[in-house]
Amino acid sequence: MPPPPVPVRSVQAKALPRIQKKWKWTGDLFMDVSRNRAERVCEVLISEATDPQPNGLRFSICLSGENIRLSAFHELSCLHTFLLASTRVQQFAKLGSASDKDADALLQLGIFMQKRSYFCFAHLYMDDSSVGLLIIFPTGHEVANSLLKVPPTLASNTPLQVALVPWELTTREFRAENWKSRSPTVEHQLDPAFAAILEADGRSVATQRRFYQALHILTFPKAIYDFMSQKQSPRPYCIWYAPADTTQSGTIGYETLLLREILSTCTQAKDMGYKADVRVVFVHVGALATLHGLPFLVAWRNKRPELRFLTYGRHPSVPRERWGVREIYLIGGVVTFTPSAIIEGHGMLFRRIKDVAEHPLWDCYVLPSVVAMVAKLTCQGGHPLRVYDEGNFVYEDLLKAIEQGSVALLHAPAILRDAPPKGDPSLLWTRWMIRLPSMNARQILEECLRIAAEQFANTSDAELPVAVEKEIARDLLRMQMQPVMMDNYRRFVVLKGRSDTYFQEDRCPGIEVTTLSKLDFRDDFFTTRTDSAQ
């Protein structure tokens, strides 16, 4: 008799593991244009986030709203000051457009931020309390990569990337002021490279106390000290310090005396004053505003590429991150045009624009008021927009060059000593710069006419040509004060026409004035390129 069948327990099929959906966020991107208002830029997609830090914040927790509101732009050189109040980055992700229609707007924003070394941020909230910042920065930028420690595996097929940076202190801790006991005293730093000298000098350091004190207070770099101490060749120099670093009686200020103490130990270094050829120009940061008055400044920047400009010191009129010893006015240049140069040199104008656009160290820009003046002078009494619509605008190619980015439509942002116009000048300038990339040629012309009408509302037609030239000169001087310009360009050039009367050397100190035909880059870029092509 066969055995009874063994009962078999029904086994429920094991469920397949659930595949976690990759997190992503879609919403509108807004940019502050005033303290109480923001304008929409485009719809964006944040995706491909890196793995979060253990037990840390993550995008999926604190980015739950329907939009992001960004601050105005900040220079990447200032990013470290934000990070001082933060913990390490918890996550990175790429920032892309949510649809093809917004791709160009985001691309233009990324190009703008990359070229000008900008970042911006948005506050992230949980339970109505700010828990950190969403930092948006240009993909591949060296400064951002260094400060944020961006992983090389982060997706780079997008113009912008984002980082989640939590505050070191919670809102409750901050409000309780527990942070005060943690704040370190701001101290001057001695370059660690001097450690070997300190050790070798031993007890003699005590007899050179003022020298080492000067190195410490000015945070003088060892590399600059070695350059000034070279014995093979002379190191003549001059110091531009007034009126920022002077006493009430007009004598030399403390930081300049410290600089002289350091340089006095360099046997080949000698202060030659302002009337002889020098190898180095030291500029107190507070005296940058008057540097255009330095004799031979234009000639030195133009014809003496080996001459170095170095800032030093501290001053309340200058952002903290610009204090100390740093080199400025390194290489290359910026070119702008007068209306007469554009009109008189029509054919050569676009060849020069092409040359500047191709040169890796040079850029050119034109003021809105200059475009408006060219339109006024060439439309023979007709309204420029009507002439443009009829297809008879002579300088449509210039508008197209601006639209395509070969020439920047630009004016310098307001600086601290400027009288502020109505509204916040920085935010107004930022708002204007955001709008520009989306404008076509006709809209660019319309915008230039609007700006010029506001600027010169009380200027007669007879006074207008010289008024525009004076505005060009003022703007180029302000450009030289912008940190990004000091760090990336050396020469600041106005191309004038034969009929221009204002741009004379004695009237425009600090500005190089030449013509379209005489502009000389003073390098072998085009010669080398031609030779290599043969």
From TrEMBL:
Source taxon at top rank: Eukaryota
Protein's name in the database: Uncharacterized protein
Organism per entry: Dichomitus squalens
